Amino acid sequence: MAESLKHKTVKGVGWSFVDNIANQGITFLVGLVLARILTPAEYGVMAMVTIFIAISNSIVDSGFSNALIRKIKIERVDYNTVFYFNLVVSLFLYLVLFLCAPAISTFFKEPILVDVMRVIGWILVINALAIIPRTILVRNVDFKTQTKVSLIASLSSGAIGIGMALTGWGVWSLVGQQLSRQLLNTLFLWFFCRWRPLWEFSVQSFKELFGFGSKLMLSGLLTTIYNDIYSLVIGRCYSAADLGQYTRASQFNTIFSSNLTTVVQRVSYPVLSSIQNEEDRLREAYRRVIKVTMLVTFACMLGLAAVAEPLLVLLIGEKWLPAVYFLQIICFAGMLYPLHAINLNILQVKGRSDLFLKLEIIKKIIATVPIVIGIFWGIELMLWGSVCTSFIAFFLNSYYSAPLIGYPTLRQIKDVAPTFGISFGVAAVMWSLSLLPISYYVMLPLQCVVGLLLAFLIYERTKLPEYMEIRQLLLGVLRKRL
User: Fold this and answer.
1) How far is CA 273 from CA 269, 279, 326, in A?
2) Which of 10, 53, 177, 255 has the largest count of CB atoms under 10 Å?
3) C-alpha atoms less than 13 angstroms from C-alpha of 157 in its C-beta half-sphere
4) Comparing C-alpha atoms, which of 332, 427, 432 is closest to residue 383?
5) How far is it, in rounded angstroms, from Cα 136 to Cα 153?
6) Distances (CA, A) of 297 to 44, 231, 334, 353, 460
7) Distances 14 to 17, 127, 144 between C-alpha atoms, Å
8) What confidence tier does 3 reach under pLDDT thresholds 50, 70, 90?
9) What distance in Å separates the CA atoms of residue 300 and residue 419, rounded to the nearest whole number?
């Protein structure tokens, strides 16, 4: 049974990671091309719209997908009830955004936002149609199918976005890319999943699922608002170009931090939910997930901070140079995101959505401090404030999750401290190479090679269990392929 769970988890992590590479990685590569064609101001305009779309999407889902994934025995009526509720809410929110578009445009002092908001808002309805098919695939830990869908949607929408940018569509090329990606993603999810709604709605099912999901919805809403409030402050208090610089830095950070967080959440939640009543197995599985995940996360995030300058200049040009410092700060906050996600997953697995919501409220109250700093004292200080709140959030998350599985905060710190120390030391050596008077074309590969080689030698010497587990998994996959 344990081996079966491990195999299911490893397979899920593998396909989920590939899915994120297909969905986010290809989109990121397309973004590199678009960043060379478009201006920071055009990216800033799109970021202003994205704030409201992200908040609305949190409301549309309403935590139902997580409630469905957690439920051990699920009925047909559960899926249909959630489907129709999500669809109605998405149509209502689109109407709200349509009517509020002029006011949003006035707030940001960007006239084009009216039309952009009214077009991009259809993403809410498109996403609502995809929630149930995606949830069914996640419940089955079937990330292979989702990978196929993401690959098709990301490649096709990327071609559409680049084509529109080359023919002078400006910010509308970003709108076209996002709309086409979500539309294709939804169409193919319906094709591969084969699920079809029936005309039924259960008030009892709605109450049961909403009782758990509503707290997650409010928590997710708070998180989304917090994540996007930085864009709101920068867009309102500074310029569209400044917001564009911040957005590009944040998107580079997403390559590792947000993608790793998403992979860990998507796979660990259904897998840990399946053993929620087996305390010892749950705790050990949880520890292994944390140690392995944070080894990869620390290496990626601190390494990204070390190579930020040559990486951004070579990939998207010197006009994006102000984004370098933003990215380096964001990396220090982002390196803890997967650890936040794993601790919060335990609260969901144990059915404590009430604690989940309580935690989010506390953390968001604390997080208002850097936002105020950003309004009065600048973007850089606001981002450093977010680094501090990220560390505080970890202590709060682990404090509440620890009693549920007997894995205290101090034990977590001891488990991840060795990999943090190694990654920080390696990143410091990599960054020191940027002080050499050499071309970016030489500097970037030199930093990467030195970092990889140094990390490999240290981990081979120390033989940390989490490294040996990753090594064993990679060698197993390689042998299988050969």
Assistant:
1) 6, 11, 37
2) 177
3) 28
4) 332
5) 19
6) 28, 24, 9, 26, 18
7) 5, 25, 9
8) very low
9) 12
